[in-house]
Request: fold
Amino acid sequence: MWGLLSIQKLLLLVVIIGGVFAFYRFMDRRKQTSNPSDATQQKPKSDANALDMTSCSTCGAWVSAACERPDCPIE
Reply:
């Protein structure tokens, strides 16, 4: 039966490969649409406690508030 190639065997092979391809596309789409709101609402843990830092022009240090120097321009 599988000795020589024929039209029926080639068509069967195309149908099998197409079915596998369609199955994987379906599963990928299902995975992407399963919970899109969960992925957008969660923040990484590193961003939860992040501070905005500013460079001090006097001492050059990155600070979130004024540094200890009395002449610091950051208030």
The first strand starts at residue 54 and ends at 55. Residues 7-33 form the longest helix (27 residues).
